[in-house]
Design brief:
Layout lengths: L8 H16 L6 E2 L8 E2 L4 E2 L15 E7 L3 E8 L5 E8 L7 E3 L4 E7 L4 E7 L1
């Protein structure tokens, strides 16, 4: 960002305060997730919350939690059914084939893995 020479330091103080406040905010180190493999520990920073402004593109209801993990070779997309009813879900990827449609019980998590590269995680969709 380029600042004009005539900008006063006092005018930039609110911006500096906001940046300082953001840098002091800390997310919890880890959030436990119930999974079909009973071994998932997902960093809270990788969760995409239901109220997030950056909600993925899939058409799953807001009670479905979605997140991804990116490794050195693969990307894995996850969807956990936090709704009180069964539903059919699939993991959705941009630039390639989506995951298969699966019946997901309340509290159950599905996952789908793709090679890392131009694929983007688009969340989960009902199917």
């Amino acid at each position: 960002m380029r600042i004009p020479h005539h900008a006063s330091v006092a005018a930039l103080a609110p911006v500096a305060a906001a940046i300082t406040a953001l840098s002091l905010m800390q997310a919890p180190a880890c959030a436990a997730v119930t999974s079909t493999d009973n071994a998932a520990q997902v960093p809270a920073t990788s969760l995409i919350s239901a109220g997030s402004a950056a909600r993925p593109l899939g058409n799953a209801p807001r009670c479905v939690a979605v997140w991804q993990k990116t490794g050195s070779i693969h990307k894995t997309g996850y969807a956990r059914n936090d709704c009180g009813y069964r539903m059919n879900l699939k993991i959705v990827w941009a630039f390639g084939k989506d995951g298969s449609c699966r019946t997901v019980a309340p509290g159950q998590t599905i996952k789908h893995q793709v090679p890392r590269g131009p694929r983007n995680f688009d969340g989960a969709s009902k199917c």
